[in-house]
């Protein structure tokens, strides 16, 4: 059987009786970039119903008509872990969105702190990056991208049911696996500071908040984007879905 490689996010696949049509951007990608032909098979997922194997019935530059052959994965949301991060330079921010998506976060919120280097945040770009990373990593959901918000507001409006783990490079935080190991099954968020770190007042506010807990990622100072990837990997291994066995090929056949 021909190996299925192309995997697209589309919000229009609904069920096996429905013939979805892809719009211009994806048709251009399929036709002109990937050079697909009628009869080729692709995978589509929609952040709601799971993943479907589809056959291309007709494709031109503007529209692609698909026929759903079968459902290949059930919908399953990623673990209930959020990432809060201070936007960085463009390339590092792209890295954060991509890696956080691959590492299975459910929601990403850009947070302005005192030393955040940018005040312009393109959440549309974040959404596009998250979709691309979800397509590539075979997620069936796409992480939600929250509106950019100040750390002050975050702390003011935080729902205490969700534990806020802030990555504290200044020491004093408990070691990461100890903390995350005890957090299995609970809603959580990971907060990583900007390149300049948190300001003293911010650290004080975080330490005082009853729902927040400082976490150490060891004695070396990591770049913010490294801290994001390291913290999320530790979370998935200690409390998230890396604790589960994965079926052969990582595919849930249904
Ligand atoms: N400007 C600081 C470093 C900031 S690193 C300095 O030079 O000291 C950026 C962010 O990554 C920090 O705010 C923290 O959230 C996270 N981070 C980096 N290294 C860390 C570590 N060893 N433990 C916990 N968090 C860390």
Helix content: 25-40%
Mean pLDDT, to the nearest integer, reads 92
Proper CATH architecture of the largest domain: 3-Layer(aba) Sandwich
Number of strands: 13
* Biggest sheet overview: 8 strands, parallel
pLDDT < 50 stretches? none
Helix/strand/pairing class, anyone? alpha/beta
Q: Which CATH first-tier class of the largest domain would you pick?
A: Alpha Beta
The CATH fourth-level homologous superfamily of the largest domain: SPOUT methyltransferase, trefoil knot domain
How many individual helices? 7
CATH topology value of the largest domain: Alpha/beta knot
Which overall shape is indicated by the principal axes computed on the Cα atoms? elongated
Report the bound ligands by name, code or SMILES: S-adenosyl-L-homocysteine
Span of the ends, CA to CA: 18 Å
- The oligomerization state is single chain
SSE string: EEHEEEEHEHEEHEEHEHEH
Strand content: 15-25%
List the keywords.
254 residues; 7 helices; 24% strand; elongated; eight-stranded parallel β-sheet; 30% helix; alpha/beta; five-stranded mixed β-sheet; Alpha/beta knot; binds S-adenosyl-L-homocysteine; Ribosomal Protein L25, Chain P
Structural commentary:
The chain has seven helices and 13 strands. The chain is an alpha/beta fold and 254 residues long. The strands form two sheets. Strands 6, 7, 8, 9, 10, 11, 12 and 13 form an eight-stranded parallel sheet that branches. Strands 1-3-4-5-2 form a five-stranded mixed sheet. Helix 2 crosses helix 3 (123-137). It starts with 6 loop residues before the first strand and ends in a 16-residue tail after the last helix. It binds S-adenosyl-L-homocysteine.
């Amino acid at each position: 059987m021909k190996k299925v490689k192309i995997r697209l996010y589309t919000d229009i696949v609904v069920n096996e009786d429905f013939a979805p049509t892809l719009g211009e951007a994806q048709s251009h990608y399929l036709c002109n970039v990937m050079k697909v032909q009628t009869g080729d098979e692709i995978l589509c997922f929609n952040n709601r119903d799971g993943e479907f194997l589809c056959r291309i019935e007709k494709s031109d530059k503007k529209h692609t008509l698909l026929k759903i052959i079968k459902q290949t994965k059930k919908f399953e949301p990623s673990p209930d872990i959020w990432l809060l991060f201070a936007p960085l330079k463009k390339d590092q921010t792209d890295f954060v969105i991509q890696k956080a998506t691959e590492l299975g976060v459910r929601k990403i919120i850009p947070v302005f702190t005192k030393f955040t280097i940018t005040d312009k945040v393109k959440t549309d770009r974040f959404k596009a990056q998250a979709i691309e990373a979800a397509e590539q990593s075979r997620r069936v959901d796409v992480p939600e991208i929250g509106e950019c918000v100040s750390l002050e507001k975050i702390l003011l409006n935080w729902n205490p049911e969700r534990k806020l783990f802030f990555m504290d490079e200044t020491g004093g935080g408990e070691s990461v696996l100890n903390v995350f190991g005890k957090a299995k099954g609970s809603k959580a968020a990971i907060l990583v500071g900007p390149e300049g770190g948190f300001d003293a007042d911010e650290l004080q506010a975080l330490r005082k908040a009853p729902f927040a807990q400082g976490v150490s990622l060891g004695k070396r100072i990591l770049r913010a984007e490294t801290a994001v990837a390291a913290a999320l990997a530790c979370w998935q291994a200690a409390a998230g879905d890396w604790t589960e066995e994965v079926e052969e090929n990582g595919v849930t056949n249904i």
